[in-house]
Amino acid sequence: MSETMTPPRPATADEVPVIDMSPALVPGADLTAIAQTVRKACQGMAFFYVKNHGIDQAVIDGTFQQMQRFFSLPLEERMKIVKDRFHRGYLPIGTTRYPGKLPDLKDSFDLGLDLSLDDEEVIAGTPLHGPNQWPDLPGFREAVEAYFDAVRELGMRVLRVLAVSLGVEEDYFVRFYSKPTILTRLIHYPAPEAVADPEFGIGALDHTDYGLITLLYQDPAGGLELKKPDGEWVAAPFIPGTFVVNLGDLMARWTNDVYRSNPHRVVNRLGRDRFSIPTFFNPNHRAPVEAIPTCVTPDNPAKYEPVLAGEYVTGRIRANQGYKPPQATA
Ligand code: OGA
Ligand code: NI
């Protein structure tokens, strides 16, 4: 029997705490107290919930409603905005595949900063920079853009707290977010029995995220599971009024492994479609990522070569999306 058959216990509040972000909503407020809680979380599972995050529930609900409409469109409609060279648009099932694993059982709609074709980075061909694509669905674009703008502000607040938690200036990360390569992914996980193709996994692929931080709004049905360092899986259920924040590999690298990026997976146990929205909140393409001085000590010398954020992230995306679904033989 596969290990994913038995639902794991929920994480305790010690493992995955709920952090009240209201102090960070006030510009100039002292962030020291929440930064301490965040530091403890990031040295543990590196997953935490944020409440009082400042995003209006109507903005979130509006986007979920539009997602349900979009993923009910016929495939040929969705394919009209198939992912382009700017990595924006529709990603059909099978696009994402982690090396050595089965393709992911999900499809998604990806967007980022909406940059025009005469933007200098777009002209230069910098990866992940370009205009968004939109389906022909009245109201979709407005709802999703409102979500993107709101989550962008939340990400900036979380980054200020993270900087304080590392003992560096509050703007340590946000100064690299003038033209960030933020990727918001509206994901649809089809009900498992709807997809009988044995070429596909069951949507339970464990992975770490590769960017700096991820801000996730998950379906009230839950389904997110985290692997503890000792190998035990725990569930991170939906908690109303919260987002899930987790750290990616780029943050582990930037902090010289003082902070962790934790393996996780999604198991759709309910036999119905599941929707979620991770936002991979990554900095400017040319943000220099070199061990943060407070993270280097004689006991923990710098481990990684300096790298540009965008080069690191696009290298990881290429490795995971080079996969081409097999051709039908019948
Ligand atoms: C991811 C991820 C969680 C979810 O896309 O990297 O972990 O709930 N998603 O969809
Ligand atoms: Ni993930």
Write the layout of secondary structure elements.
Elements: E1 18-20, H1 32-43, E2 47-51, H2 57-71, H3 75-79, E3 89-91, E4 107-111, H4 120-124, H5 140-165, E5 183-189, E6 213-218, E7 224-227, E8 233-235, E9 242-247, H6 249-254, E10 264-266, E11 274-281, E12 288-289, E13 307-308, H7 309-321
Parallel strand pairs: 1-2
Antiparallel strand pairs: 2-9, 3-4, 4-5, 5-11, 6-9, 6-11, 7-8, 7-10, 12-13
Helix pairs in contact: 1-5, 2-5
The structure holds N-oxalylglycine (OGA) and nickel (II) ion.
Name the features:
single chain, about 325 residues, alpha+beta, Jelly Rolls, three-stranded antiparallel β-sheet, 13 strands, disordered C terminus, binds N-oxalylglycine, binds nickel (II) ion
Ligands, ions, cofactors: N-oxalylglycine, nickel (II) ion
User: Based on the structure, what is the oligomeric state of the protein chains?
Assistant: single chain
CATH superfamily: B-lactam Antibiotic, Isopenicillin N Synthase, Chain
CATH architecture: Sandwich
Q: In percent, how much strand structure appears in the residues?
A: 15-25%
Any idea what the radius of gyration is?
Answer: 19 Å
Shape: globular
The total beta strand count reads 13
Uncertain residue segments: 323-330
CATH topology: Jelly Rolls
The main sheet orders its strands as 1-2-9-6-11-5-4-3
Number of helices: 7
Order of helices and strands: EHEHHEEHHEEEEEHEEEEH
Helical residue percent? Answer: 10-25%
Describe the overall structure:
The structure is a single chain. With 330 residues, the chain is of the alpha+beta class. The chain has one domain (3-12, 41-321): B-lactam Antibiotic, Isopenicillin N Synthase, Chain (Jelly Rolls). It has seven helices and 13 strands. The chain has helices at 32-43, 57-71, 75-79, 120-124, 140-165, 249-254, 309-321, and strands at 18-20, 47-51, 89-91, 107-111, 183-189, 213-218, 224-227, 233-235, 242-247, 264-266, 274-281, 288-289, 307-308. The protein has an eight-stranded mixed sheet with strand order 1-2-9-6-11-5-4-3. Strands 8-7-10 form a three-stranded antiparallel sheet, with no helix packed on it. Strands 12-13 form a two-stranded antiparallel ribbon. A hairpin with a 5-residue loop joins strand 7 and strand 8. Helix 2 (57-71) crosses helix 5 (140-165). N-oxalylglycine is lined by residues 187, 209, 216, 218, 224, 264, 266, 276, 278.
